[in-house]
Each structure stands twice: as structure tokens, then as C-alpha cells.
Amino acid sequence: MSEVNPHGWGVAHYVQGVPQIVKSPDMAADSPVYSALSNQIESSCVVAHVRRATHGDHTVANTHPFQYGRWVFAHNGNITGFDDLRPTLLDEIAPSLRSHIVGTTDSEVLFFRLLTAMADGGVLDTEAG
Length: 129
What we know:
Blueprint: E1 9-15, E2 18-24, H1 32-40, E3 46-50, E4 66-68, E5 71-73, H2 82-91, H3 95-98, H4 106-120
Antiparallel strand pairs: 1-2, 1-3, 4-5
Helix pairs in contact: 2-4
């Protein structure tokens, strides 16, 4: 998939419960760093993503996975009509979380909308189990 999805890559893994993320806007198939990481990481939870951009430029800020505290998120797919939905979705994100959005992808907005729902449910700031 690293050749079919050429617009960046990212890998998140946890060390003592803290996410460690490495990502690049370059194609994973051409990256010696991606190759080395994929063969060296040891963790009970790894989130890896290769990007095929539908929204947002090919930048590190738009490359998955995204992080907020101990939470990481990657998304495959496309939110249909995102350009029209973006203002509404942003309004539904808690103001304290909205300021942490640094990219322009539908996936990052979706992540922060999910974090808002978690905050509303009282599970965003709970300790890892």
C-alpha cells in the first residue's frame, strides 16, 4: 500500500503508555526511515498509516496519525462533501480542542469531533486502563 498511497506515512507506538509518533509527507516506499521503523518497533499498540490525500496538502501537519495527549488516530477514506461540512463540524468541536487542529484534512477534523464526544462522555481525560 505504500506505493498506492504515495502522499505520506506515519507510525505511532506507545512507550510506557506515551505515544511516540514519526511521520513524513514523503512516500513510504521510498523512505529508509519508514523501512527501519517498521522492522524495529516493539509495542502492544501500533498505528501505522500510508496516505492517499483527498483533502489537504502533502505536509507533515496533514499526515496521519494525529495525536492529542495519549490518543492517536488514523483514518482511511473520504468524508463526502467535507468542504461544505467543515464549518459545521468545526462548530461541533469543543473550543478547547479546536485550537489543536493544525492541518486541513477531513480526518483530523473527524478526530477532534470524536475527542469532543469523548470529553462530553467523561472519558477523554481518564487514565489508561
